[in-house]
Amino acid sequence: MCNLRSPATPPPPKILGNICSGPKWTNSEHPINFRTTYYEDHYANELNRLLENNSIERYYSHDLIHFKDIGSGGFASVYVAKWKNTPTLYAIKKFVNNKEVYLTKTVNHHVNIIGFYGVTKLEGEERYSLVLDYADGGTLRDYLRNYILEWKDQLRFAREITSAILWLHEIKKIVHGDLHPNNILIHKDTIKLADFGRSFEIGKGCDNTEVWGVLPYVDPKMLDQTIPYKLNEKSDIYCLGVLFRDLTSPSFINDLENNHITFEDALPNTNDKFTGLYQKCLEREPDVRPNISEVNETFSSIDSEDNASTVPYSKESEESKKMEFEHSCQIDSNKLCQEL
Predict the structure, then answer these.
(1) What residue spans carry the region label Disordered (predicted)?
(2) Binding site membership for ATP: which residues?
């Protein structure tokens, strides 16, 4: 029998951020629609097994109060709520499938992964909702809009994101499949990776061959419609490359050339080894990109003191260019592929 309870000693608030989703090929505010095989029967069985063994806590939904919507879209909604008689905030993610519950449980217990407490069924809902840490620090996207990072913090954030992906790929054998700044959160100045709704287990695979995702955080091989291509570990690596560049400056796409997203040159005073690392991650051909262990090893040779204290550019000007571009890039995915 499942264990139903309210948390006896609630932990301090931690993290969760936006869950955004929408139709078509898109920018980083509204990911496009997607279809894939979820192996729902398999994950339903696995989830039931964990619940029956009390490996996943199940909470009374009537103990949740003061709901506030903090992010919603086509596939999920996220609310912040409190447990009765406690000051502790939690994030409640609705409309998740069995696979996401199972994988969120699987990747738990890492310092750079969103904290998972269990599940609840809200009134009138058939599906489980996730009970997660709440992030008072917001998303990486918002953080980079509001702050210019010193080099030591750029490097630290890059290492923390890498640590989370290393945990997924090497230990848990899972591909995240949807890395972008809205799925990377910050709590107490520490990176937390979130949202495993599009993740999948290595070997069990993602059957999706459609173009979907968030520009510019999409493996360029997915744009090549002449050869069927499925997301894999190297797809996460490509996204890491874009994220690493984000840490030095908000990404700005200059062009789509030969099915490949091109970026501005590295900013002045960006560490050469760090620039070389993310450029390798951004290689068009997956086989040329490093694996996550190689990315992690490279950081041991990068000096946190070997750079200017801040990157000299206008954050306001850069963000203005980026927002203008984003408003112009909401186009139909089929049309994009035909043009390419």
Answers:
(1) 297-328
(2) 94
